[in-house]
Amino acid sequence: xxxxxxxxxxxxxxxxxxxxxxxxxxxxxxxxxxxxxxxxxxxxxxxxxxxxxxxxxxxxxxxxxxxxxxxxxxxxxxxxxxxxxxxxxxxxxxxxxxxxxxxxxxxxxxxxxxxxxxxxxxxxxxxxxxxxxxxxxxxxxxxxxxxxx
Length: 149
Hints:
Layout: H1 3-19, H2 52-62, E1 65-67, E2 77-84, H3 87-97, E3 101-106, E4 114-120
Parallel strand pairs: 1-3
Antiparallel strand pairs: 2-4, 3-4
Helix pairs in contact: 2-3
C-alpha cells in the first residue's frame, strides 16, 4: 500500500472515530440520546401548562352560594341580575360580576333559562334569625361530609 493511500485511509478512520459521539451510547439500542436544555422534572415529559387564572375562577365558582330564598341573603349587597341556561355558566357570570351568592329564579315561560340576582356577601353577613330550632328530642344533624383520612 502506498504511503498516500495509507495516510488517506488513516485520515478517514480518524474522522469517523472522532465524529461518532462517545457519551450516551453504552450499548443502548437505537443509538445515543441527546437532550438540549434542562431535564424535565416529570419523567422526561414537558411540564403541564397551568392556567392560574382559570384555577382561581374555578375556586371562586365553587364558593358561590346559590339559593331560592332571598331572606337568606338579607345582609348582603345586591349587584345585579344574570341569566343563563347552564348552572356552570351562571356561576361564572356571578363570579365575573363580583358576586359571592345569588338568588335563583326559574321562569314560567322559559324553563331552560335560570335568572339569578347576584349578591356580594361579606363575612359579617349573618343567617336570618327566623330559622326555627330543631324539634325537642331530635338528635342533632350529622356533621357535613368532609374529606376522609
